[in-house]
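Box 3.1 A note on notation
Throughout this textbook, protein chains are presented in two layers. The first layer is the amino acid sequence; the second is a token string describing backbone geometry. Keep the layers aligned when reading.
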Amino acid sequence: MNPSESQEQLPFDLTPEEKAYLAPILAFCTKRAKFANPVTLAYYLNRWNRLVRNFDHYRGDGEDFANEVSVREILQRDILIAAPQSLVEKINAALEEPDRLYREQTSEVDQPWFGRPHESHWWWYRCPEHWAWYRDHAPSA
């Protein structure tokens, strides 16, 4: 979904310091994604939230799913990594419920299904059980 298709709002207000921190990061993310319209923090948070809330209806393949899950990676790697503590707390609070839902709707695997083990966050170690990848890489009981 292109950012122009969504004019959603954040579930919290940003301070001037937080806005100043986000501006160059979001400009870089917009350029990297080659979007015509700028991406926003609300776009990323809402996209992650939509994925986990519509998980039962998701019909994309592994590549599409990796693109969807990469939104969570962008939040962590590009935005949270050096954010002011006030922004970290706000974003983490907004991610608490969608992260919980993602964990509930996926199963753990012994290696990341995308990325490299030493560089991968927990969401890459979880996948839908109907994937062949899950059957091949589910941790032994």
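Strands lie at 107-108, 126-127. The chain has a mean pLDDT of 87.
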